[in-house]
Design brief:
- The protein is mostly helical.
- The protein has two helices and no strands.
- The two termini are 22 Å apart.
- The mean pLDDT is 85.
Length: 55
């Protein structure tokens, strides 16, 4: 379930990043970039937590 949400957040972030670039909106690009970064960070954190739990 988390992987599906993770992919959706990354896609939304990428769309906002591209939309912000096309519209020359720095705020939209920032929000899109932060969404992608947050999804990557949380994905890594959950993967690390799951490894610790499984061992």
């Amino acid at each position: 379930m988390f992987q599906q949400i993770d992919h959706v957040v990354r896609i939304v972030g990428l769309v906002l990043l591209i939309l912000g670039w096309l519209l020359k909106s720095r705020t939209t690009m920032l929000v899109g970039g932060l969404l992608i970064f947050a999804a990557e960070f949380l994905s890594g954190e959950f993967a690390g937590a799951l490894k610790k739990i499984s061992h």
